[in-house]
From TrEMBL:
Organism of derivation: Protomyces lactucae-debilis
Listed name of the protein: Hydrophobic surface binding protein A-domain-containing protein
InterPro entries associated with the record: Cell_wall_mannoprotein_1
One annotated Gene Ontology cellular component of this protein: extracellular region
Segments passing through the bilayer: none
Length: 187
């Protein structure tokens, strides 16, 4: 019985160590269950960032044409799907989220902001090059903007009073980037 208990304790410690290293060694003040959930949400945010990098690469190469816009459409839809996954997981969380977990998410969003800015600037600049695909890109942008609003609203709603200002600030930056791109499609 003692050996079995020690084996379970050893395995639990080993699993915790693997989880912590696998999730970039982030250490939260929350218990392991909350940490895993927080890290999953942060993982979604980082996936959005990775997906944006891929989209930015496609936008850099895009010179015009409907057929050439298809990979951009698919890539943008992948970004949207990743954003929806983050929203879904955040909505499952208790209110408020632990400050340490939320701070990690906000740090990931700060990193994400640079790629969102790059993507929205590129999409705005290439609006006319999309030609016949412009309405399709506009619809995707509107959907992505709506999901971003839902993501931001969820983060703010799940923030403690001490963290709400920081959550609102990061959300507003993202909204502003989408707004700039959308103005190029509403002309």
């Amino acid at each position: 019985m003692v050996v079995r208990t020690l084996n379970v304790v050893y395995l639990n410690h080993k699993m915790q160590a693997v989880l912590l290293f696998a999730l970039l060694g982030l250490v939260h003040a929350a218990p392991l269950g909350e940490t895993a959930k927080d890290d999953a949400i942060t993982g979604h945010i980082k996936k959005i960032d990775t997906d944006l990098v891929a989209l930015n690469g496609l936008l850099d190469q895009y010179t015009g044409g409907l057929v050439a816009a298809l990979p951009i459409k698919a890539s943008a839809e992948t970004v949207e799907t990743s954003m929806k996954a983050a929203v879904t997981d955040i909505k499952k969380e208790p209110i408020p989220l632990p400050d340490a977990g939320l701070q990690t998410m906000l740090d990931a969003i700060k990193t994400l902001n640079g790629n969102v800015n790059t993507t929205m600037t590129a999409l705005g600049a290439k609006a006319e090059k999309f030609g016949a695909a412009k309405p399709i890109v506009q619809k995707i942008l509107v959907r992505m903007s709506d999901v971003e609003k839902e993501l931001g609203d969820s983060l703010v709603a799940h923030a403690s009073p001490a963290m709400q200002a920081a959550a609102k600030e990061e959300d507003q930056k993202l909204r502003d980037y989408f707004k700039i791109a959308l103005t190029q499609y509403n002309t």
